[in-house]
Amino acid sequence: MDLQLSNKVALVSGSSAGIGLAIATTLAQEGATVIVNGRTQERVNQALDQIRRIVPNAKLQGIAADLGTQAGAELLFQQVPLVNILVNNLGIYGSKAFEDISDEEWMNILEVNVMSGVRLSRHYLPLMLKQDWGRIIFISSESALNIPAEMIHYGVSKTAQVALARGLAETTAGSNVTVNSVLPGPTRSEGVEIFIQGLAKDQSISPEQVEKEFFSKTRPSSLIQRFASTSEVAVLVAFVASPLASAINGAALRVEGGLVRSII
Fold first, then answer.
1. Which chain positions lie within coiled-coil regions (predicted)?
2. DSSP letter at 227?
């Protein structure tokens, strides 16, 4: 299927690794010009090299900027004044008891996970509306629906992203601009892979057994009973970013392996 992205410019925030890198790679495979972002030039260059190994003729631009800050966003806007597709993927997380989460930690996770998308959308959405075409996609999480007790601040930030996306979608009525959120579940990113390998080594069991026990004990409602791959998330994002998804607007699309026990 041709996703008709060959004439589109896409920005993926936080795309030097994990789901963001997979999204950037998939968009590049579909012919889009992709702007890869990370906090350091070294990380950005590594991501560009990884994408080019898979897509030798990829049309890429790399920008090192901390988009969790106003200064980083302004630096980006100077270099990339206009995009057709914005994927708000940048995010952080951390496990911590609610009573131990400081004000500073609350503000930091909201600044990175929520305000980064606010700033980027505030800049690019009016331009998309002016040209009457655009896609904004927030990479949220199933934790937006199933707030994890071990990281409530993360869950709150992910719920805020879904609300933000829906609110922005309301402003696009009658246009060819859409705003949606995508909610991945447990995904086998680089960080998860390192965690699995370390746990397997510590417990003297196989990585496969670690994964099996994680889903049987921690995520028993998962229907696929495994980690999704980053590419499985990326293909959904690429479709939603395409002209073919013009009737999808204001939606929260789940790619969490059936973990959320809900029919809607």
1. none
2. P
Q: Which amino acid is at 146?
A: N
Quick one: CA dihedral 129, 130, 135, 137, positive or negative? negative
Closest CA to 121 of 63, 71, 182, 67: 67
Structure pTM? 0.96
Enter the DSSP assignment of 260: S
Helix or strand (DSSP H, E) at 53? helix 41-54
Tokens of 151: 């990281």
| pLDDT tens-place string over residues 74-92 | 999 999 999 999 999 999 9
- β-strand partners of 182: 139, 253
Q: Which amino acid is at 64?
A: A
pLDDT digits (tens, 9 = 90+) for 132-184: 999 999 999 999 999 999 999 999 999 999 999 999 999 999 999 999 999 99
**Count of other CB atoms within 10 angstroms of residue 204:** 7
Token pair of 158, please?
Answer: 């992910």
* Catalytically annotated residue among 93, 124, 154, 214: 154
Domain spanning 9-187+229-255: CATH superfamily:
NAD(P)-binding Rossmann-like Domain (3.40.50.720)
Amino acid at 262: S
Residue 132: helix, strand or coil by DSSP?
A: coil
> For residues 15 and 89, is the Cβ–Cβ distance under 8 A?
yes
